[in-house]
Amino acid sequence: MGDSAVNGISETTGRLALYLLMFFIFQYRYLLGLNYQDKVVYFDVGQGDANLIVLNSDITVLIDGGPLTDFVHKLQKRIKIDEKIDYVVLTHPHEDHILGLIEILRRYSGFTLVLPTSCVNSEIYKELLRTSRAARTVYTDYFSIKADGGNKFEIKYGDTGISKCFSTQKDVNNSSVIVEIEYREKEFLFMGDVEKEREVKFINRYSLGNGVNILKAGHHCSNSSTSEIFLKAVSPDLIICSYGKDNVYGHPGSETLRRFNSFNVKHLDTVKEGDIIINLN
């Protein structure tokens, strides 16, 4: 084989290697973009709840931390390690929602901590309060953010948006903070562990306009939540269920799944799908 032929093969191989390198760089940057752009993440944390919302490429909201003490590592796969968190919402202080927040509150600071109005005396809840480096703490039953995808956003709290807990309600599930996110006319609703009684109070008090696009169903899609009255009122396009495999609680409830079917609404389960990511861009 002549020198010119060898040189031709070398040049072709070199160009191919360069194209492959450029392709992988592009893919890497593309994946990074997906990782940090505006999105909603419903984490697979087993038998528990944890959700992340990134809005306007600047507002970061974390709702619950699930039962995993090392959840912070899972979170940092979805946001930049040095990225701030603006709002941390604990819907209610059961271990399957609170444990993963402890380490996060140690590592991050300057956020607003949103807590339910019920005064709880558990040790894990006391540890969360001791650990928190929040700039501000608000106790409320309802928290909402409306964002336009640009640089405008609006924050609202329920009437009970105050600086200390005041309720001794023993039903911790029904004292959950309900979170509503509106992004470019898309509605996302997070129900914590709210059950049927509180669902009725919620829809009688707050207007959801034309319903919600994605509903994070209450109490891990148990039979005690997501009633027919509530489903009719919020009219979701998609429902997310977060629960663990072979859990002892029987989640999701068979009656609830039948209600989903009767309303012809699709549902996704974190135990089957893994982390569920909704790209808002």
Automatic annotation (TrEMBL):
Keywords: Membrane, Transmembrane, Transmembrane helix. It holds the Pfam family Lactamase_B. Coiled coil: none annotated. The chain crosses the membrane at residues 16-32. Residues 47-243 form the Metallo-beta-lactamase domain. InterPro entries: ComA-like_MBL, Competence_DNA_uptake, Metallo-B-lactamas, RibonucZ/Hydroxyglut_hydro. This is Beta-lactamase domain-containing protein. It comes from candidate division WS6 bacterium GW2011_GWF2_39_15.
